[in-house]
Amino acid sequence: xKSNMLAMRLLFTITDVxxxxxxxxxxxxxxxxxxYQCRGQGTAKSELLDICGLSGRxxxxxxxxxxxxxxxSIFTSLSQKYHITRKGMGIAGTIPITGIQEIVLKxxxxxxxxxxxxxxxxxxxxxxxxxxxxxxLTAVKEGYSDHVIDAALKAGAKGGSxxxxxxxxxxxxxxxLGISMQEEQEFVLVIVPKDKKADxxxxxxxxxxxxxxxxxxxxxxxVEEIAGMEN
Length: 231
Known about the structure:
alpha+beta; Alpha-Beta Plaits; 9 strands; Nitrogen regulatory protein P-II; N-reg_PII-like_a/b; N-reg_PII/ATP_PRibTrfase_C
């Protein structure tokens, strides 16, 4: 159980755009170095939007990576300090991560990195026993999404989708990763067969990783159910 607290999670929040400062403050206080944001418009039926209190408003979608051990405190703050559980304040959730590039893990010390690697592997084994697909998510500098798609296709992917947004975070991380904060980003989502995930992530990392001009961050999350994909 103790090691499970180091398992990596993808945290997402969907809030009104006016809550941007509150989300920024929350992530800064939690010492989460990088997060990504994009804007969207809700398209659910009015009854559901009314339940969530989000009807007719633009959304701010925020995504970041964090250890499992921080999830409870983040959700406590979202509920008690930022009142996200109140009608109209938004939605938050987490997704287990089953793959991440090595350079991101190097942000942790050696012992934590070793445990995180073990837990990422365990996540993949335990949560994808029957799953045939995984989603590879890549965030790159604006203008490099085609490079990501090309690298993924070269390794066996069938295609992908692109969302545009912005990378935000703590400027202190810039020196370590050699990236710029508050930079326009393109997010590429590619659903691939599980047995091709490693090859596709390596191909994308080699072509568009943090050591390339694209400055890409790449990770994967499980896909439990899917329709419309060819084997």
